């Protein structure tokens, strides 16, 4: 799995996943033959319509227990900066996209893990 915290000024892009019913960082599973960075770039574009104006920077790996079965999952965390905000189109998986400052309320549930991961990548001077 690879996820990206993409920043524009002091806001990070979040997507609303219809199936999980929550706001989260764009990301997903690696496709065959794909590395984590390639997956992060692809998932960012597919889920949010956004691209990083600079090469994505690898932050580290995150490990967590997922779901009621407490299945161990691992994900590569990347961060980048958008030079401009691009249009978004909803699809069958992603219902909405927002630029978020980590403090305003979002309508609905927000993934606590993804908020934590986003905070780890806060740009200098955004604290």
From TrEMBL:
UniProt-listed PROSITE patterns: NUDIX (PS51462), NUDIX_BOX (PS00893)
Cofactor: Mg(2+)
Gene3D superfamilies linked to this entry: Nucleoside Triphosphate Pyrophosphohydrolase
One Pfam entry name: NUDIX
Keywords: Hydrolase
Domain Nudix hydrolase as annotated: residue spans: 1-122
Sequence similarity: Belongs to the Nudix hydrolase family.
Protein name: NUDIX domain-containing protein
Organism phylogeny: Bacteria, Bacillati, Actinomycetota, Actinomycetes, Kitasatosporales
